[in-house]
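Run Magnesium-transporting ATPase, P-type 1 through structure prediction, thanks.
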Amino acid sequence: MVWAPEAADTPLRVLRRLETGPRGLVAADAEARLLDHGENVVPSRRPPTLPRRFVRSLRDPFTLVLLGLGLVSALIASWATAGVIVLLVAVSCLLRSNGEYRADRSTAALRRLVATTTTVRRRATKDAEPEEREIPADQLVPGDVIKLGPGDLVPADARLLRANGLTVHQAQLTGESAPVPKRALDLPEGDEHLLWQGSSVTSGSALAVVTATGAATRFAGAYAGPLPSRRGAGRRTSAFDRSVNGLSWVLVRGMLVIPPVALVANAVLRGKGLEALPFAVAVAVGLTPEMLPVVVTTVLARGSALLARRGVIVKRLSALPDVGAIDILCMDKTGTLTRDRPVLSGSVGPGGRPDPEPLRWAAVNGLWTLHLADPPAPDPLDEAILAGAPDLGEVEGLDAVPFDPLTRVSRALVRDGEDVVVVVKGAVEAVLERCALGERERRRANATAASLARAGARVLAVARGPASARTGLDAAGERDLTLVGFVTLADEPSPDAAAALALLARRGVKVKILTGDHPGTAARICRELGLEAGEVADAAGLTAAAAERATVIARCTPEQKARVVRALRAAGHTVGFLGDGVNDLPAMRAADVGICPRAAVDVTREAADIVLAGKDLSAIGQAVAVGRRSSGNIVTYLRIALSSNLGNVIAMLVAGLALPFLPMLPVQVLAQNLCFDAAQLALAFERPGPAALRRPFRLRRRAVLRFILGFGLVNAGVDLATFAVLTRVPGMEGEPAFHTGWLVENMLTQAAIMLLLRPVRRVSRPLGLATGALAVAGLLLPLSPLAPALGLVRLPVTSVLWLLLVLVLYAGVLVALTARTRRRA
Ligand SMILES: Nc1ncnc2c1ncn2[C@@H]1O[C@H](COP(=O)(O)OP(=O)(O)OP(=O)(O)O)[C@@H](O)[C@H]1O
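Sure, done. The structure for Magnesium-transporting ATPase, P-type 1 is below.
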């Protein structure tokens, strides 16, 4: 059976070819088709397997440079060096891919909870009435009849059977960034009647028949390789990623420069040629924080697992440090701060007097948009209006376009007795600008709406005007309507919103409300939640400076929300956006981190980096804390690893020039590196001090570089002091004794650095064990069976005592130098 419809086929022919009908498939038939066609999953969207992750982790710049150095070692037959490098790479990639894999698995159950679902029409038996059900999108089969509404992801390729004011965003497939209109034309010419998997509904509603699923969709064909970013082309790397990448590249450059410098120096000063190459390679490896990718993955995977236990899904692991860096969180109001369960509270005429007419016409509009546009999920506002509406009389619906956040109105064309009328309801300004009103009447209407909003109500304006059944809704002028009045609805704040806002304030995150609603309503909700409303601004004509000052920005269109977010980012803030509706999508894409509650519409959930699967909004505060902790641990690792490595490399290069022999054998450099790397994994389990949780975390690259350089030099000084001791203590004259002394001292100082260069004093159990093991390994390696292979010998007791003395002095210096930073933590 060939499912793909020819572009110009009529709906009937397509339905026939797919052996289905407008009433949907019979359930048993759908099951059989599922076996035939498989699940509706694009192959490249399946989570990668462990081996594939392993191969992917090889693409890291450090790993590539390490492999390059390994290759050089192999070419000059320095097998031990090559072997240790391959071991380092293998362990690093294995730990990293395993960490990612486990992080994915830890959120898998939660992900299923918030998986995309689709409203499908199916029948229990051939003669049964069709029923509409939500099923997971991966269970769809060709021939299924589906319903779509604003915010829905198009779950498979489909042919429209009916469409109402439908526009879709299909940039991923066609590159068009603006939403394109779609119609259920009988005899189409272009692709106006076709929907592609991977696009999303911006406005309107539709009934469509699925023509292709899974690997057979156009999307799967277009992206056989890796997927483009789900957040669209606008997605940038975060400040944290950029800083870590920047540091990495400084080091990679260093790694590439060191071997030639060491070689040339040896050649010039000692007339040695290529025999110094293994040493040069080992020194370059010594500079690498080869465990950086592993530590980053472990820290982030742990953070994500911790949050999963609290019902928070981190979809993009690298979003965690971004959450920790957020200093402004913008959020929408409806469905985030309020429950989005509005209840009708009143109906008044344009002057503010109680009047049932606005409610009646609002309900007529709501009823027929619901019936004719037939969206998959009814709008809560329309439901509330219908629940509280009186008898609507004999009004027959002719056409309707559901609510669109861009126009901010919903429209219906109805026959009222002999007359055909267009009924418009929506945001006050959007409706008033469609009304023929004198200056005074307009002012009076605005004053009425403002006073209703100040009392905290959601206000909808209702207007009507003459139209023609023949020319239909699209041609209805809608310019000279008559204002019927206003309906008001109450929407309770979410029970946990106040606590969540208070927690964010304690964490130093400023909250801004960006809403499509009236400023009065938004300001009132803020006060009820204990948030100082401060400056309330109107989105129209808002300047960047005003956006920075305001706490509430009202009457926002979706694009204006995004513009505010972009302006705040341009002013140097790290901005999070929390929203649930299709009107929040552009802002979510513009923000550093997108967050959405579980009940958000599909597209918003797809675009979000973090999904709050639980009900409690306070989870955002927890995500912020975990984000800061994760970044803190990564930076602590970088400081410790790099200042220690840098110190060692400087000391080795200097000593290399002063000594008649190599200060350390390549295999010793690498063995010491391996031990240090393994111990440093414990830094992933650290808990930063309370001060780190009180303010947004910013990785300041310069400050980190200064720290690394400063302590690197101190460390080099200590190494050279060790060098001086080793050359003077009796019994240490020979090359093996010198090597052993330096290796032991290095491992002891590395353990000291791990304990002392952290921002907090408290030592976690994993860290205590790791540093203890590193120090003991340093002392015991020369006595172990590995000693001959590593070129180590037993040291006289006096020299060990001397080395311990240097260590104590070094620890004293570190304690004195870090006292100030620790006091602040
Ligand atoms: N179903 C509807 N019919 C008519 N008007 C609506 C409907 N839903 C919303 N509106 C009006 O359009 C305005 C903008 O709606 P939009 O959904 O963009 O934002 P919002 O509901 O106010 O919430 P948020 O705080 O999430 O931005 C609303 O304030 C309301 O006046």
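Residues 332-335, 379, 381-382, 403, 405, 408, 410, 425-427, 460, 515-517, 581, 583 surround adenosine-5'-triphosphate (CB under 6 Å).
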